[in-house]
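Thread: NAP complex, take 2
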Amino acid sequence: MSKTILITGGSGLLGQHLTKMALSANYKIKWLGRTKQNTPPEVESFLWNIEKEYIDEKCFENVDYVVHLSGAGVADKPWTIQRKKEILESRTKSTALLAKYLKNNTSIQKVVAASAIGFYGLDTGENSLNENAPAGNDFLANVTDLWEKETDKITIPTLKIRIGVVLTEKGGALPKLCEPIKWCAGAALGTGQQYVSWIHIEDLCRIFLFVLENKNLVGTFNGVAPLPLTNQELTKAIAKKMKKPLFLPNVPSFVLKMILGEMAGIVLGGNKVSAEKIIQTGFHFEYDTIEKALLNLNI
Ligand SMILES: NC(=O)c1ccc[n+]([C@@H]2O[C@H](COP(=O)([O-])OP(=O)(O)OC[C@H]3O[C@@H](n4cnc5c(N)ncnc54)[C@H](OP(=O)(O)O)[C@@H]3O)[C@@H](O)[C@H]2O)c1
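Output below.
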């Protein structure tokens, strides 16, 4: 019999991709979100109101697994005080609410919850980071740490995936990196030596399904490909795939700080994150090199 996955934030970049992949692997899919807009016909959708601490409990009926992806986009809007609060609370409060409703649930077998490699801090240099590395001490690291602490309160067996920079032509970082390159104005950012721990969206969604189906796996896993690149190497690889020249000097850090303010840390810093733990479980990456990943993507 096909299993049912409830996805929170299913309407987002990862949720939509996971939905398509899971439907074609014969899962039934339900979404839990703030609206029912844009729900595909094959998906049953349900509402929650995080501020009012309300979930339509019908969403949990006949559900085997939950994938929790909700959270206000980290790089979508400037980091005003209000937006920072939303980035934090959309994660901590939604997770706390889910934990509260799942407390007495005896039928759901597993929860996979999104986390982020931002946990490690904005700039951890050359150190290869496994899941035991400590939390960093900046805005995103603090958000992720508090978010994970709420996830740890879920009483059903739960996995946290510390997601890296997800590559897809449909949104997120890649289209933003491609845009200047398309106009022959591409350049590495800052020193260009900061690491980008990327993952192809398809491999990430395959990790979600893989860990759900592997009963014994719980705990924290990095969701990154095995070979992180420096920003310079990634910029070059993208330009090569797009058959565009790269001749401009790196964009200076101060310019990015002037334009992006505190958010510039996201592109000027970086982490070299290890995929070793997920590889040790037997997970096989389809896109283990950037060349394979970019070849598959429509840029
Ligand atoms: N994409 C990446 O590169 C990446 C990297 C690291 C970590 N992650 C994490 O993975 C998760 C999913 O990423 P994504 O790229 O799919 O994100 P996304 O496209 O921004 O979608 C997230 C979903 O969360 C819900 N949401 C948005 N604002 C919210 C708010 N204020 N309160 C409650 N829910 C809200 C929305 O669903 P509804 O409107 O249906 O409620 C939205 O579709 C996020 O938690 C993100 O931090 C992503």
